[in-house]
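Hey,

Quick one before I head out. I ran the complex with NAP overnight. Inputs first:
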Amino acid sequence: MLVTGAAGGVGSYAIALLSSLGFSVTASTGRAETHDYLRQLGASDFIDRHELSEAGKPLQAERWTGAVDSVGSTTLANVLAQTTYGGAVTACGLAAGADLPATVIPHILRSVALIGVDSVMAPMKRREAAWRLLQTQLTPEHIELATEAEVGLAELPEVAEAILAGKVRGRVVVKVS
Ligand SMILES: NC(=O)c1ccc[n+]([C@@H]2O[C@H](COP(=O)([O-])OP(=O)(O)OC[C@H]3O[C@@H](n4cnc5c(N)ncnc54)[C@H](OP(=O)(O)O)[C@@H]3O)[C@@H](O)[C@H]2O)c1
């Protein structure tokens, strides 16, 4: 399985979950300094995110049986083109852009599925299933590892700048009280 945007919040949790479910996980990241962190979460292989960011052919060598993509744009198009016959790719985010410069070729020649993910309007039944998965598959160590910091509301502007500058890994917990 491939996880893009690996050192981000979605990517970190996806790696921990997939790895604990028994998948072999490749992490795509632009930050080589996060490899140790990602390995501790469960990644066993790494690619530089720039490998996926340039426009590529509609059909490429098959590398992934599935992927969790939080990047979008040409990255998602390349991931679809590299997914094996019958594989599935989830589109979770748009860190690199909301466009999708892809073709239908991987879908009609390799039966690759592109599955949308939305957490905002997800029905309660699906949320409960997701929470169960977090409860059964993640350890407190996973969560601690993937929590960069705990901050108050006043610190948010500073944290937002750090996130946009690519300096935060995993999640930041905001104490609202
Ligand atoms: N669908 C939903 O329900 C849902 C829920 C939550 C979040 N999201 C979306 O998912 C995306 C990720 O959220 P997040 O909370 O994980 O954000 P995040 O913590 O900021 O992580 C995003 C990661 O994407 C990578 N990245 C950033 N800019 C990039 C670029 N220009 N090209 C390629 N990779 C880039 C970086 O990973 P590396 O440093 O490892 O390269 C970064 O850590 C966002 O677009 C967010 O809006 C969607």
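Residues 146-177 form one domain.

Talk tomorrow,
K.
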